[in-house]
Amino acid sequence: MNKNSEPTIHDIARELKISASTVSRALNDNPRISLKTKEKIKAIADSLGYRPNTLASNLRNKKSNTIGIVVPLINRYFFSSVISGAEDVAYKAGYTVVISQSNDLAAKEINIVQSMFSNRVDGLIISIAMQASTFEHLKLFRKKNIPLVFFDRAVPEIETDKIVVDDFAGGFRVTQHLIDQGYKRIGHLAGPQNLMIYLNRKNGYMEALRKNGIPFDESLININRLTSEDGVAATQYLMSLPHPPDAIFCGNDTTALSAMIYLRDKGIRIPEDVGIVGFSNEPYSKVVSPSISTIAQPGFEMGQKAAELIIRKIENNERTYQTIVLPTELIVRESSIRK
Amino acid sequence: MNKNSEPTIHDIARELKISASTVSRALNDNPRISLKTKEKIKAIADSLGYRPNTLASNLRNKKSNTIGIVVPLINRYFFSSVISGAEDVAYKAGYTVVISQSNDLAAKEINIVQSMFSNRVDGLIISIAMQASTFEHLKLFRKKNIPLVFFDRAVPEIETDKIVVDDFAGGFRVTQHLIDQGYKRIGHLAGPQNLMIYLNRKNGYMEALRKNGIPFDESLININRLTSEDGVAATQYLMSLPHPPDAIFCGNDTTALSAMIYLRDKGIRIPEDVGIVGFSNEPYSKVVSPSISTIAQPGFEMGQKAAELIIRKIENNERTYQTIVLPTELIVRESSIRK
DNA sequence: AATAGATATGCAATCGATTGCGCTTTATAA
DNA sequence: TTATAAAGCGCAATCGATTGCATATCTATT
Hints:
3 domains; 15% strand; homodimer; 434 Repressor (Amino-terminal Domain); DNA-binding; Rossmann fold; 44% helix
């Protein structure tokens, strides 16, 4: 072994005057090697401080034992929870996870995905960027038959595994809850409608109105990017209507919070004057005052499920796809309790 | 090229009846290859849908272009911010980041770090587990001269690059601020003292007391693991003292919040009866009510700096180490304003 | 003692990309 | 025209681990 280069199985082999194949087999506990030899080999390996070179092994095995995860933004509670859950499962199954964030930019997402392909990830777990519009980079994975799992934000036109929450039911429940609380004019801050999750939330909202015989008023829906700023602007707009809403179903907790702050500053009381419900159950939603009613999205669990699913696909080469819909849970807090 | 296996440079070479070396050089824009040949090669590469196999390249180059990041818990705002910042910088420099969480367990940390070594990461960025006590796994990196950067939670006995915030100054400032606000008996919830960050915060606290001529009272310091539950228990304990504190400097925002909730439930007013200051500036600290005074820790920036530093080390093989101390910023909010 | 069968190990190719060295061919200079 | 250099490209080894096939040794059986 050269100085300052790692010992390899060949160094161990030379030391014992045996072949590298034997060493390799011994270290992998291959039954073809006798126990005595194995022990000698392992002893030398230890004393040399040998560490297998995963790169070489991966190359030979055409398998990287790596799962790629792409999220819009790592630094967001829901996504970091998903990553955390997926990492947990992957680690226990002997996989490494590589992570990238698209920053919700289509171009970066394409780059990342291609780079992960070049790195020969065994599977890809992704929640697509808001801004994404073409999906050739993802179809590549399907074409090569590399397991691909969408979570939360999926692409309808790509047939593969998906893990989503029941956004429709979530939107429905939120709205029904507001109606039950006696709110009469319910506004909605909706996210980009090219993303199914936001479309479904809105549809759930509309269905609840319909079912309760409440006429649908287009002007009460404001579609935006659900940033904090958008939340303020949209709320301002809704409240300036000749006939403003007395409750707002916000597409996420970010806008729910910013709407709440805006309304409070205007002297509008929550939940007395206007009820607010968010979506996602961000950690702060339960500690702000008033606490925000919202829909819990089990991020950690989604990550676990996504990892379990993709590992199964990697190891069994199944060719059937499923869409796992996790149930939503309405968490009623102060911001929407009128009764 | 075999069916269902990726095209390689050899396939391109065969197609054009040239050698693989030429293809490799052409694709890497080596000046030794003529422009005409390069163009032909790139055209074929495109039409074949060729993607370089990074594994093979990495093996040959003894470089993985990968940076490992180990944090206690991915799913924590500060850490996910660091990861986010590091990923940003790494991505732009052409590196992939692999991420693992130790769950604050020593055993898992050791495992992860060794696995990252086997994966031949080019460098390792880590914030050590609370529970960690031996550091052989990290010394391995130093011994092999693989760049190692600690952030936030560093190991004093290992000489390497470190990126920390000025916890001492942070603790000092918090305490001085409470004193300035007229609080007389200031308690402190401290984290495990084997971690420098918590030790430094406590030392800053003590120094501020000393400088203001306030006698130090051992019983006002409670050392715990700074979980939400610990925060409640510690606060309960402090308030049950014969001479309870009128302000508490909490080692992190988690405990600050749980302390606040506990006190509120007991009918104790904040900041009138008891002042509270946290540490870390978790996102919720500014939106809860009362909002929590705290120390801002620039997580995203720390991640960026850590990545920049480690990439420089990787690419230049420098052998000098630095400790970058990022300034802390006291954010004064409602929970500690008495005047 | 001879042979089948089991046991233990080695040979050499392979995974895909890279690169030092050397061989042609063409261009330039004398 | 001949030497000389430069340009363009190929050969083959290399990175480290794996594995099908072959070989060598040993045990058991008749």
